[in-house]
Write a structure and sequence with these properties.
Elements (H helix, E strand, L loop, with lengths): L5 H10 L22 E5 L2 E4 L4 E4 L16 H11 L8 H13 L5 E5 L2 H16 L3 E5 L44 E4 L4 H10 L4 E6 L15 H12 L2 E5 L11 H6 L5 E4 L10 E5 L5 H4 L13 H17 L2 H23 L4 E4 L4 E6 L12 H7 L2 H13 L2 E2 L5 E3 L6 H21 L5
Parallel strand pairs: 3-13, 5-6, 5-7, 7-8, 8-9
Antiparallel strand pairs: 1-2, 2-3, 4-10, 9-10, 11-12, 12-14
Helix pairs in contact: 2-9, 3-9, 5-6, 10-13, 12-13
The protein binds pyridoxal-5'-phosphate (PLP).
The site of pyridoxal-5'-phosphate has 15 residues, from helix 4.
């Protein structure tokens, strides 16, 4: 029987009186039929206030790589909490976490800590501008780098605002942004190395950094085409530009060496968030010693009362030890469960003639839904995704899945966790079979 959400509805109504718009992050409003209120989670499962049990593939927007409430993590945090929750000062723990990152990530000669990846992106861009003495940042259309004035430039622009193929515009989706900020960005389309080269050449001598998600996960799920990473590296080396890999999603999900090891490149700076803390507010900037010089010298200010908070460090140390202990079995196991799920969803889609096209390396993937008449084939760029992805139809299927106890992310992304077993995938597919049948019966395209 399909789940109902009466208690969540009541909570959401109550929250309107005390919390602006009833939620604490804009994107959470997207959850249909109502933003859900949760009570507890364990492993691959999550329970809401109505008593509904979900197999969770949203996993805290990908932060819960180790699953919900993994054994050992709460104990590690509790041990630290009894010794002190916050010092705004140094501890051996911060060196232990730094040394682990150094030994795991190719591009991590030094690190600095913050509490969100949004902050780390701000630090990295400030550092890059000072390091090079240049004003511009090149980023890719559809890539998300946090919600700050800088992080959101060029994220998901509507088609009537996205500019020409050769010159994508640098618009910002939010009002209230410092007016000069979007003008300090050059936006390029993803997965077109020649176009990228032209964009860099057109602003030669002015670009401080190229920032990117190594596997685009915020608008679809698109791995880089062969030659893209090497082109970015080559252009950065040629022109003295800093290469910044935003590994907020990919970091540790793609293995201990992150996506940079998986894809075979070494960036100058790396943004880490989400899985590095396994669900606590912990994030890090990692990079080459040479790229950190302006922070070392104090010319670039990097600060934060809660930076290197001991509770977060205790959690991060636990997470990194978990990845280290798994060795080469990670990410292979995660890829296997993810690909099993993708294959099962594709089979169900075929059975019910639903144009669903799961795409991605399994450990994270996106469920594209083709618009009527849209061409087949993987999405390769943000524009391609907007042209061919049927967002309203996906939203309907996503709601059917939720009502049958399978929770994916509203924008179509599915995250595996290390707690998801083959049996979880079988159970998720049994539930999905009912959801797909309901969707096939109920879906009618808007007139
Ligand atoms: C690639 C990427 N960068 C940066 C961020 C910002 O992270 P946070 O929400 O922790 O500030 C996100 C968040 O989803 C992200 O996906």
């Amino acid at each position: 029987m399909a789940y109902t959400f009466d208690k969540s509805r009541a909570f959401f109504e109550r929250a309107q009186n005390s919390i602006a718009a009833g939620i604490n992050s804009g994107i959470r409003k997207m959850e249909a039929p109502v933003p859900l209120y949760f009570t507890h989670g364990k492993g691959s499962r999550l329970w809401d206030v109505d008593g509904n049990e979900f197999i969770d593939f949203a996993t805290g927007q990908g932060a819960l790589l180790y699953g919900h409430a993994p054994d050992g993590m709460a104990e590690a945090i509790a041990v630290q909490a009894k010794k002190g929750t916050h010092w705004a000062a140094q501890s051996e723990l911060e060196i232990e976490v730094a040394e682990r990152l150094q030994s795991m990530i190719p591009g991590a000669e030094l690190v600095r800590f913050n509490n969100s990846a949004t902050e780390v992106v701000m630090s990295a861009l400030r550092l890059a501008r000072c390091h090079t003495g240049r004003p511009l940042i090149l980023k890719f259309e559809g890539h998300y780098h946090g919600w700050s004035d800088e992080g959101l430039v060029g994220f998901a622009p509507p088609p009537d605002k996205w500019g020409t193929e050769d010159e994508p515009t640098h618009i910002h989706p939010s009002q209230g942004v410092i007016p000069e900020v979007p003008g300090t960005f050059v936006v390029a389309r993803w997965n077109d190395p020649e176009h990228l080269r032209q964009r860099v050449d057109a602003h030669r001598g002015q670009i401080a950094a190229i920032i990117f998600e190594p596997v685009l996960c915020n608008t679809g799920c698109m791995e880089p085409v062969p030659g893209l990473m090497s082109t970015i590296r080559e252009l950065c080396d040629r022109d003295g530009i800093l290469m910044i890999a935003d590994e907020t999603i990919t970091g540790f999900r793609f293995g201990g060496g992150c996506a940079q090891h998986y894809l075979g490149f070494t960036p100058d700076l790396t943004i880490l968030g989400k899985a590095v803390g396994g669900g606590v507010p912990f994030a890090a900037l990692a990079g080459k010693k040479s790229a950190f010089q302006k922070i070392i010298s104090g010319e670039v200010i990097h600060a934060g009362t809660l930076n290197a908070n001991p509770l977060c460090l205790a959690a991060a140390k636990w997470c990194l030890d978990e990845i280290i202990a798994r060795g080469d079995s990670h990410p292979a196991g995660l890829i296997a469960t993810g690909q099993k799920l993708m294959a099962g969803l594709s089979e169900l889609a075929q059975k019910h003639s639903i144009p669903l096209r799961p795409q991605g390396p399994g450990l994270v993937f996106h469920c594209g839904m083709l618009k009527p008449g849209a061409a087949e084939g993987p999405f390769t760029s943000y524009r391609d995704y907007v042209h061919r992805h049927d967002a309203p139809r996906w939203a309907h299927l996503r709601r059917c899945l939720l009502e049958e106890g399978v929770r994916a992310i509203e924008r179509g992304l599915w995250f595996q966790s290390l707690a998801h077993t083959a049996a979880d995938i079988d159970e998720a597919l049994r539930r999905a079979a009912i959801a797909f049948e309901r969707h096939a019966q109920e879906w009618t395209a808007p007139a």
